[in-house]
Amino acid sequence: MSTQTETGIDTRLFIGGAFAEAEGGRTFENRDPWSGDVVSDVANASGADAKRAVEAAAEAFPEWSRTPPAVRQGIFLKAADVLESRQDEVVSMLARETGCTFGFGMFQMHFVPGLFRQAAALAYAPLGEVIPSDTGAFAMGIRRPVGVVGAIAPWNAALILSARSIAAPLVLGNTVVLKPSEWSPQVGGLLWGEVFAEAGLPPGVLNVVTHGPGEAQAIGDELIESPHVRRLNFTGSTATGRKLAEAAGRRLKRVVLELGGYNPLIVLADADLEYAVNATTFGAFLHQGQICMSARRIIVERSIADEFVARLAEKTSGLKAGDPSEHDTIIGPLINPDALATVQSRVDAAVSAGAKILAGGRAEGPCFQATLLADVPADSEFANEETFGPVAALQRFATEEEAVRIANDTPYGLSAYLYTRDVGRIWRIADGLDYGIVGINTGFVSTEVAPFGGMKESGIGREGSRYGIDEWLELKYLAMGGIDR
Ligand code: ADP
């Protein structure tokens, strides 16, 4: 079995500080979504491999949980430097493994070192409390790491989302088993084994278990069933998140879930139209619309709708789809043929039921054209399910109340966007939106320290730096009797 790709990232499991083959030497083919070529043969772990990873993490926990904050901080600062030194290789691997364009690859590559440096500061953040007592006891609340955290990460924004799934839990003194997606095993998983080993993370503190398509369950089961694993940190689809949360519930195991969204983008009549058109194409089509925060419903005030829609359709039609390694490509391939088929069939079904195509609408090789739909019937699958691709649907509204009602009319509540220059409308509408994240005149709402997460069926809990303190530490109550005893 080969252990290195052309990019140099190891292909074996990372357990207890060493790279090693999966049980029985099992591997799977990690394919390039643009060319279909095999990028690498990657270890295909079994439940037994996952168990070994959990045991390694459990063994490493007592010492790591008592490691001084300065040491944890230093490792994260070094990891940021190590990652930066591998920039070109990582951006090229993001394209090869996940079809990520150069622009979004560079964005991820700049984001994650910042995330690690913010996380480094977190090592000193967990303060305790002294609690007033009527009994004369000296009472304290102290925060302690929870144990092993199971991190399950997705393939989209593979670098950011896998990094976010491990950063706060680790720096706060927990040990981690990371299960990357089968569609990003190296750049969304094994890479971190290498980066953190070089940064000085002790063996067993981070473990990475990869697996082939459709084989997540055995590893997921181990993370749920093992008593060592005290928390699950999941980013992915609402369907999978629900399944994991149900199973974790039986074990009374806490989960943090960052799930899907059916995100609205509202354009009011007074918005700067040129800016709003550009921001909408960015918000809807960045990374081929395969971002949980992608704008999927464009809700436009009736009085400007004709002009806005014409300009948006023209801009959308001009977005180049193609090879993600070419720097001017805006729309790269979808992650795999099944994803492409799902997007095409949902668009076709919506059109057969009466929707109109204003731009795009077809596959182009492994890519799907940037697509705008109008008049999507309310009972179509497209109108009710998150369609993970570069397709947005237009709707019109007459009043502020109607805009908010349309925007909130979904079981999801991840992110919403609002374009207007009217301060009164900003506060009224932003306040009325049932979303965990609201971007006002910006589609770029992700910062390293934001309380990132959704309402309703978009998730539970918040990711992001200091907000992780509540998620990844146990608040423990200590009471000491009268001092005369
Ligand atoms: P997508 O369909 O976009 O890949 P998923 O929610 O299926 O979204 O994937 C997100 C993550 O969840 C991936 O790492 C995937 O392997 C993982 N996953 C999928 N099914 C399970 C499962 N039964 N147990 C644990 N993890 C799972």
Number of helices: 15
Contiguous runs where pLDDT drops below 50 for at least 5 residues: 1-5
Overall mean pLDDT: 95
Instruction: Give a list of the ligands.
Output: adenosine-5'-diphosphate
The biggest sheet, with number of strands, parallel, antiparallel or mixed sense and barrel status, is: 7 strands, mixed
Q: How much of the polypeptide forms β-strand, as a percent range?
A: 15-25%
Going across the biggest sheet, name each strand in turn: 14-17-18-13-12-20-21
In terms of quaternary structure, the protein is single chain
Using the alpha-carbon principal axes, give the shape: globular
Give the helix proportion (percent range).
25-40%
Structural class: alpha/beta
How widely separated are the two ends? 65 Å
Compute the number of strand runs. 24
Radius of gyration: 23 Å
Topology of this structure?
Elements: E1 13-15, E2 18-20, E3 27-31, E4 38-43, H1 47-65, H2 69-85, H3 87-98, H4 102-122, E5 129-131, E6 138-145, E7 148-152, H5 158-171, E8 175-179, H6 186-199, E9 206-208, H7 216-225, E10 229-235, H8 238-250, E11 254-258, E12 263-267, H9 273-285, E13 295-301, H10 302-317, H11 337-352, E14 356-359, E15 363-364, E16 367-368, E17 371-374, H12 381-384, E18 391-397, H13 400-408, E19 412-413, E20 415-419, H14 423-432, E21 437-440, E22 455-456, E23 459-460, H15 468-472, E24 473-480
Parallel strand pairs: 7-8, 7-10, 8-9, 10-11, 12-13, 12-20, 13-18, 17-18, 20-21
Antiparallel strand pairs: 1-2, 3-4, 5-6, 6-24, 11-23, 14-17, 15-16, 19-22
Helix pairs in contact: 1-7, 2-4, 2-6, 3-4, 4-5, 5-6, 9-10
The structure holds adenosine-5'-diphosphate.
